[in-house]
Each structure stands twice: as C-alpha cells, then as structure tokens.
Amino acid sequence: MDNKAIKKLESDLWESADLLRAGSKLTSQQYCMPVLGLLFLRYAYSRYKKVEAEIMKDRPVRNGRVMPISSADFAEKSALFLPEQAQYTYLVELPENISEADIKAEDGHKINSLGEAVNYAMELVEKQSDQLTGVLPKDYTIFSDDLLAELLRIFNNNALDDVGGDVIGRIYEYFLSKFAPAVASDDGVFFTPKSLVKMIVNIIEPNAGTLLDCACGSGGMFVQSGDFVNSKGMSANKAMTFYGQEKVEYNAQLCLMNMAVHGLTGVIKSGDEANTFYSDAHHLEGKCDYVMANPPFNVDKVKAKSAQDAGRLPFGIPGVNKSEEFGNANYLWISYFYAYLNEKGRAGFVMASSATDSQGKDKDIREKLVNSGDVDVMISVGNNFFYTKSLPCSLWFFDKGKKAALKDKILFIDARNYYTVVDRTLNEWSEWQLKNMNAIVWLYRGDVDKYSSLLEEYHSVLGDGEFSDIKSQCEDKITELKNEAKTAVEAAAKKDKKKTQGEYDEKIATAEEQLTIAKEAVWLYEKFGDGVYEDIPGLCKIATISEVEEKGWSLTPGAYVGVAPVEDDGVDFAERMNEIHDELQKLQAESNRLMDTITKKWKELGI
User: Fold this and answer.
1) How far apart are alpha carbons 117 and 99 in whole angstroms?
2) Is there a contact between 189 and 219 (Cβ–Cβ < 8 Å)?
3) Do the beta carbons of residue 170 and residue 344 sit within 8 Å?
4) Disulfide engineering: 315 pairs with which of 142, 368, 521, 559, CB 3.0-4.6 Å?
5) How confident is the model over 477-512, as pLDDT tens digits?
C-alpha cells in the first residue's frame, strides 16, 4: 500500500472513530490508548493470518491429520501467536448479548460483556510475549457494548492487511495529533517516515549484534532492521539484540506493541530513567554494533551539569548559557550516537539540517568528529518528508570499521531534489529511489557486486535492452493505450463506458509503473554505467578531510556537490522573451476589448 492510500485509511479510521468518541462522553486521554489497542489487535491478527498461511503450506501430516499449529511456529516466523479468543474476527463475531452466551475464560470465569471479552483478549496476548506484560490497555469496560462493537467493526478494515512497516507508529501519531495536539507537540512525537528509516537501515546494513535506539519512539528502527535481517534469510531475534530508551511512556508502550506484532523481542526502558540526556539506561557506552535514531531536534533547557555527569561526550560539550543549560542539544545526541559504538560499530540517524554547519562549540565538536575518520556518509533531505512537520533534515552515518582507503574520505549526497511526490504536503523515496541512493554508497565503498545485482534486478523487471530504449518504449505504449482507450470508450455502449475506461485505466497504470521504474534505471545508469563511481555535480561527491577543513568543517552536502548543470533546452532566450511580450500585448488588448463590452452592457442595463 502506498503513502496516499495509507493517508486515506488514516483519515477514514479517524473520522469514524472520532464520531464515536464525540458521543461517548469520554475524554481524549481515556479514549486514545484503548482505540490504539484495538488497532494493535487488528494489525496483529492480519500478520497472524499471513504467517499462518505460510506455516500451513509445508505443514507435516501425521496419521492423515495435519499437525496443529503452536506458538513456537510463529516465533520462528517472527510473528505473534494469537489464541482463538484473542483473534480479531472472534471478537467481531461475538453475539450481541454476551451475558447469555455462556462464554468463559480459561480459568472458568464467565465473561459478561464485550468489554470483558476484549480485556481478556489483551490478557491472552500479553501471555504470548513477556515484554508486553502490563503494556496493553485493559479498560474496555469503560465503553458500552454497542460503542465497542462499532469500534471493532471500524478497525475490521481489510486495507490494514496490505500495510507494512511501522504502520502502528504512523497511525498512532496521526491519531495522537488528533486526540491531543498539545501532547504530541510537547513530547516531540514525530513519526519517522518509512523511507528515511529504510535509507538508514540500508546503509547501516545490520546483520548481527547489538542495536540501540536511544530515542526509539514507536520502534520503527527496530521493525525495519528486523525486516532487513529476516530478508537475508536470518532470524532477527536470534541475530540481533534490540535496546531502546524512550522518555514518553505512551511511546514506549507503542514500541513494545509494535515489536510484538512483528515478532521482535527487545529491552525498552521508559520514563525518567530513559531520559538519554541524563542516563545511559542500558550501560551500553562503547558496546553497540549499531545505533539508529531520530531524536527530537533542537531541544533546549538541558541541564549542563547533569548531562556532563551522565557522560558519553567524547568530543567535549556544546555551548552552555547563563542558566547553566545547553541551549541546543543536537550535538549531545550526535556525541551519544558516536560514544555508544564499539570499535567496528556503525551509526545512522536523522538530524536537523542546521547541525551540519552550526558554529561555536558545535563546530569544535564537529572538527574532532571529522578528524576521527569515522564520518562515513552525509545525506541532505528536502522538505515534506516528515508526516506532521514540513522541515528539511540530514542523515548522518558513522562507521568505526571503515576500510583504510576510506578513512580520510566522506561521501556527500544532496538528495533534496530527488524524491517522489505523494501529495502537496508529503514526499518520499520510492523503493527504486532508495535502491539508487544505496547504489551510490555501494560504489563509494567498493561494493561493485551489489551495484551489478541492482542492474540485474532492473533488467529482471524491465527486460533486456538499453534502459533508455525501454523508457522510450514505455512512453510510446502509454500514448498508444490512451488513444485506444479514447476510441474504445467512444465506441462502447453507454452502459459499458465506465467498465471499458476502468479496464484501460488498469493497463495504463501498469504501463506507467513500468515507465517509472525505467526512468529510475536510466537515472542510475547514465551516471554510473556498469559500476564506476563518479562525483556527480549537484548530487554526490567524495571529499577528503582536508577539503572539509577548507570548508570550515562544514558537513553540509550542498557545500561539496555544487549545483547540477542546467541543460540547454535549445530555446533562444531573447527570441522567447519577444514572443512572451507579444503574447502579453495580445492578452492585454483582449482584456481591454472585454472590459469595453462589459461597460457597454452595464450602460444598456442602466447600471
């Protein structure tokens, strides 16, 4: 499901749920987590059914009977097992008058209302995952049975079956911004877009070891890392150990729910002990193979003495104001991410764009950081990538295990003009754009085989031949289909016109999808051919530490990659300006003529 479809789903779910909230006499605070709990249960059921189908494909048969499924089967597939009474359809299909249905829990006690049935479902789920103990909401008796039944129906939406990644985190942020905008803003609850998370994971390439997100929010970094590891044929839970810190209790609960849905286990700490500025909650300094995070940007009023006492500041401290506070915590975060890495560790994180060339003590820290030789890749990201904020950002990557040949180098990528528009408020990187960006990093690192595999993947989708030729063929095909559609619709009977147009719309959409892929293949191949890295003006450059020093220790990609050359469109400027001037004169004359006509009509009407 694409971003546009997810946005519609969010809007539909919220509109329906909010109508019920308005009639429930419950506060937003009372309503918020139970509603999100139902979303969790519905999404967990969706994953349960998919994994169940996978398990049943190869299920052994004994004495003519298929072997029963157990929770262990689901653990192997990184999914959450759901007992029957915790399955979403079971709850949806319960009879209207539950008190007369003689429904009982495992211990024999009678369930007398739908609220009790949902509470019991949450208890059963918690028993399947130690990390969920005490996390799921179990106050559904605050709802009337009629209201709760309607909520269950609202979330019984098949569209949720097609959503991947950190969907709970995303819809959670959307709902939270609706339930309590002030809370969402104050706590810095900003969902990390899937394409940014995937970019970080793709470049970090986690495969085994300890992963920390010390600003873990709803757990998107863990979910995507787990998917990455599993896609390589390994078990994320066996290969990785996940640790998280999250100051906001709500977010930590959501993180645990999110991980559980994806069959991941981890240690997540929350509350005051998880305030990263003042606590290394897991005592992981110098011990992490991977660090990933999207910390809150530009945090102020961090107590300098307490933060210094908490340590993890290998390059010194940022500037302290008269109130003995750090006025901007960006370089505290940057220092933490570096300090947590072991001798071969990699870090990838989102950061405010301003941090790449901020001055004062920040610059001093940045100089020491660059001179360590461990800054690996810097990527500029344009506006409208964040779901609830329109602000640019940058992606930073550290690698303490860089090859010797790269120790003196940093790859800069300016991706501010490379993205897919979802709508007027949201941009993203498509899957192919993510692969193309990743390919630049591969070539910088000397991983030519990975680049070659991507070219093969393009050919497997598009077919053999030159990518530019395939692109032209796709364009011709779309034009042909549109012409055919027009002719066919005009010729069709009135009752068949809509159906005919729909059939052609599907064909055109398929062809346009192929064209989109072909364009990305051309974009990549025209720049790097069969796998030779080159600095591309306006896009990427490998700079040395000496060059960074010459730029005043700036880590802003735009300072290095420059501006892409403007292509000559073959139009004579002076000639075109004369044409525009003539067009304007004609339009002005037409405007005057129309005004004279209107004035004359007014007079005739006596106005």
Assistant:
1) 11
2) no
3) no
4) 368
5) 999 999 999 999 999 999 999 999 999 999 999 999
